[in-house]
Amino acid sequence: MATKPSKDLQAFDNPKPGRDFTIRIDTPEFTCLCPLTGQPDFAKITIEYVPDQLCIELKALKLYFWTFRDRGAFHEAVTNEILDDIVKVVQPNFMRVRADFNVRGGVYTSVIAEHRNPDWQAPELVQLP
Questions:
Q1: Spans of all domains in the chain
Q2: Which sign, positive or negative, has the C-alpha torsion 23, 92, 111, 58?
Q3: pLDDT tens-digit map of 20-52
Q4: Residue 56 among known ligand-binding residues
Q5: Mean pLDDT, the chain, whole residue set
Q6: Residues 66-79: what's their mean pLDDT?
Q7: Model confidence over 1-25: pLDDT tens digits?
Q8: Second CATH level (architecture) for the domain 18-116
Q9: Which annotated residues bind substrate (predicted)?
Q10: 111: exposed, middle or buried (C-beta count within 10 Å: 0-12, 13-18, 19+)?
Q11: Is 114 annotated as a binding residue?
Q12: Which of 88, 86, 94, 90 is nearest to 116 (CA)?
């Protein structure tokens, strides 16, 4: 196998660091294991962020997600770990990680975790007709 799971998240320079813009990443095939039963949990992970100086590199992110495949973790822990690990690498102005887990035992779980740089001021929202 040419590639393997890796916790080595990587970043690249933001091509427009003076402008606030949003990057959205959807990962519809995230998997981890239930820490109690060992059965697989499936989720869609959505990352939205306003970069500062760095952006997350997508192949490294894919290999990072792969590291969860054989690990037992609660939904809340996984979501917060993903946020913490990515924030540590790219130090964004704002980041939101949303994990929408598939049904298990008749229950759907969504976990949303956010980070905000305290020195960053969000731009005013523009409402278009």
A1: 18-116
A2: positive
A3: 999 999 999 999 999 999 999 999 999 999 999
A4: yes
A5: 95
A6: 96
A7: 568 999 999 999 999 999 999 999 9
A8: 2-Layer Sandwich (3.30)
A9: 56-58, 75-76
A10: buried
A11: no
A12: 94
